[in-house]
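Instructor's aside before we start: the two examples that follow are unrelated to each other. I chose them only because their records fit on one page, so don't look for a connection. First example below.
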Amino acid sequence: MAGQDHNAAQADRIARGPVGITLSLSAAVLSSIGTIWIAALMFLVVADVIGRNFLNSPITGVAEIAGRSVVAIVFLQAAHAILQGRLTRADFLIRRIGSRLPLARDALELLFALTGAVVFAAIVWASWGKTMGSWYSGEFFGVQGVFTIPTFPFRAITIIGATLASLACLYRAAHIRNSPESPDA
């Protein structure tokens, strides 16, 4: 619980200033879109199960849509999770270290944030060519003549989400020393 209070306090502090507010608002909007997408996907899967099992009439393309949607939803929600201090990590270890060695905790937080920024930037760099290629070629996935959907929107979401997540990591890294438990705060 103390770790969550620390993360919430730090997230509130990060959301201040024009850059923090813009970054937080952008991340919250993308996360909200991801949440709505989860609900829509849930209804689609339930409708497919009902149609398949009770009406002998499955919905074409549900597996393809669900497969691509999961990745898109993760990238839509990553930046918000980072800014809120809720990205999956070994929180118990960070709390234990932080209770005895606040500077070591801050160093771990900084390392975590900078590593995240590099990883998400690498995802953007690695995805850029394929994303542009899918735009120019009109690439699609699915079975032609049965069900197809363009890949570009899903690839673009990866680029947008990873870019925002990388910026969120850098922003958190710049504000590590502002935590309430730090000696300088």
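Example two begins here.
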Amino acid sequence: MVSIKSPEHFFERDPTNDFFSLLTLEKLHEHVSQYCALHQGVPEDIRDYVHVIVTLYLYGWLYYPFYTLASERSFFAVEMALRKRLPPRKLDKKGRDRRSLGDLLREAKDAGLLRDEGFPSLENRRANAEELNEHMAEILGREPERQPEVPYVDVLIGTSPWLRNHFAHPNMQTILTPGQALDGLILAAEIINQLWPIPRPVSSDEGDSPPARA
């Protein structure tokens, strides 16, 4: 049962983390710093929002349910970024943008902003899926099922809206493991990083001021 932390234990590590023997706060921070960073081309307000979500994830070390809350919020960060990057062409009679997350992801794909090559974690995700497929086939005593070759972006367009709505309109509490929650944060960062171009480094020559005339 999840309870409200008492003041005397407020800053203590949540003992639920003990289920993962190799998990440390240092490892959590290392992972989010390496895999959840947004480049400088992403607008500051989007980066600030993601920083809040990543920090909430790290506070799962103190209160385990925060891992799940951070993963939930990662979907909202993606939607926020998509709406900023793709302003609506029209609003409804009440001045609202009626596009869903699926609509926004599809529009980003059609605009060439989301491509499979833009997901650094995709190779590992596919390898893990293949390993799981082979493991399940071994347990069931049958040949591994051939996985359909579907563009990863299309998979996201099909699954992300359902997951987002599941979190936004819950009928029960969901608790994710730290790894599952981190996976959601990584995916959100990879989507957002594709929406804006990475700033081109300024060379020393470009950065120098022109010489003053005598």
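The two ends are 78 Å apart (CA to CA).
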